[in-house]
């Protein structure tokens, strides 16, 4: 015998009833109520710890009961809880779900998302890549770039020099080299439309063609591997998953983990682009140490960021384009720089080591 | 999520109510209190919420895992389980609410919404003209989507076996909610003016004009739009055959919003003093190895502190204003949500979610829902008669609701 309340579905009047379930038949009796229904026609609500069970009858009436003996009676009459509900009810099982969830998220971050972004990028029409890149360039030009103050002959010489180099593995990656005077100091980056932007300040800081060519090789690596678009997709994926897990905790705050998680992808791409530069320079017998020294110089100039040799405006930088760690705003730049500091040392060491292996003398060649 | 429960949490007391001075049945007490013979019409019936964080956590984990494993398909079932959990754990006068949404209908709605979102994003890559056209179409269907969303939500909510209904038609939504496209236009103009004043250097007068006009337009439309939305929602709702009645007015919304903006300005004064006093400590910390993390967190948190403060204020005041001006039959509601308490809940939730890398989320949800539900009570206005069901079948598609959710037009306040 089970204590329950019956609602006939046509009013909210509550009828206290006694419930019997036997041989697949639900029967109830109370003041003015006497009914029986086949259990197979009754929709039984899922079990919750502190809420009553609701048995929905086919004609719209329903029974509410918190009686603990209801469980046993239901089970004896062949009612089976859905598997998901059993899963949710048991701590060990739901902790297993938690562990699987974490494993899934980590694996997705490590391999799944990069793979998905790569696959997606293969199917992006070139026209779309071009449009995105063109828009980014227009945005950057409007906000942070001025026309190059470099001698046109110097520009032409550098263009020719780089165009004369063999690309690694006989690749024929199309690109376009643009020079700009930046309001943000030495910088170079690649856009999805194959445009490589090099700032005058970087050319001046390099003082050495080999270093400039090395940086261009690095940027060409970004273009070849389509890092720009891949990173965009990966950041998007991370954002969607974080939103799914954390939910409505404002988007501003969800941007922080997205940003932090994006750092690893960024470093992976830098490493890949560095390797591309190493391959390309070695294929042409050019030393990499000058490029490593340029990185050292840039790292040093970032460390003294606030000493501000240049009093130019400190606007927010474009966030979309990728490349080295300094194309973004002052704030983001220093954050990103510091967070990728170990990788900076690592890449400089690797560039120098590449020369050692080949026996190319650091200064000559 | 909270508003879903509260939206659904419109109730019908039965003949029997608790006697005066008797405490309402304790939360967590599984068995509804027996009807009391002595009836007191003035005793307010407090809403109770019996859900617990630990139980909800397990549901959340399993939902999340299955949603990811099925590439989002399970999310429709997850939504039904989540809402059923929240509804069935909400009770007033010993009887619980229930949610009846059909997962298949919700899944269909989600697919429609996804297609709409995709169309919206792809159109941006095709051409600006197409993007604007799609944007205009989306704006044009928004009131209709809202009406559908309310209808689905209400038709699938019940209390004591009697269903809620939403009578609001699409046409009415257009008449009442025409202000939303105007608002969107103002926001667009505002964004455009910010973007252009960044890249060019026009005269100061131009900047003031182009930034101030949309700002004033927003100040005039946001409270009004919010008022119209709530009125549309509450005036067209039925519980069974009994209609809800909303007698709030727009001036209350304007006052609340004006106060919120005032607090924003006042709050910047102590914030400025604090920043000035701690400037040296800040510089010291920013120079350390993890200084970049510190500066990032500091920036985000200080911006968020303001948002949190204003959000808690608006949330509590508007919930109170809306429910204190809503009646059903001869009964009315009483809402006593406190801004300070809400601020505390939001702030601690945020911290705990951050430090547990999101694992606290389900506990946070339950805490918030519990507070918002339990700040509400029903005041019977005389002898209570039984609410009669409207047996008219009201099966509506989920398309509107889901599209509404995804586009975030289901305003949560």
UniProtKB/TrEMBL annotation, chain A:
Listed cofactors: Zn(2+)
Chain residue ranges for the region called Disordered: 300-331
Residue ranges of domain DUF7092 in the record: 1-75
GO cellular component labels: membrane
Residues passing through the membrane, by range: 91-111
GO terms classed as biological process: proteolysis involved in protein catabolic process
Ranges of Acidic residues composition bias in the record: 306-316
GO MF, one example: metal ion binding
Cofactor note: Binds 1 zinc ion per subunit.
Keywords: Hydrolase, Membrane, Metal-binding, Metalloprotease, Protease, Transmembrane, Transmembrane helix, Zinc
InterPro entries registered for this protein in UniProt: DUF7092, Mito/Outer_Membr_Metalloprot, Peptidase_M48
Boundaries of every Peptidase M48 domain copy: 172-353
Pfam families: DUF7092, Peptidase_M48
Family that this chain belongs to: Belongs to the peptidase M48 family.
Alphabetized PANTHER family for the sequence: METALLOENDOPEPTIDASE OMA1 (PTHR22726), METALLOENDOPEPTIDASE OMA1, MITOCHONDRIAL (PTHR22726:SF1)
Record-given protein name: Uncharacterized protein
UniProt source species: Noviherbaspirillum saxi
Automatic annotation (TrEMBL), chain B:
Family matches, as InterPro entries: DUF898
Biased composition annotated in UniProt, kind: Pro residues: 22-35
Location of the region described as Disordered in the Swiss-Prot/TrEMBL record: 1-40
Keywords, in A-Z order: Membrane, Transmembrane, Transmembrane helix
N-terminal signal peptide: none
Transmembrane intervals: 57-78, 99-120, 126-147, 177-198, 204-229, 261-283, 289-310, 342-360
Name of the molecule in the record: DUF898 domain-containing protein
Organism whose genome encodes this protein: Noviherbaspirillum saxi
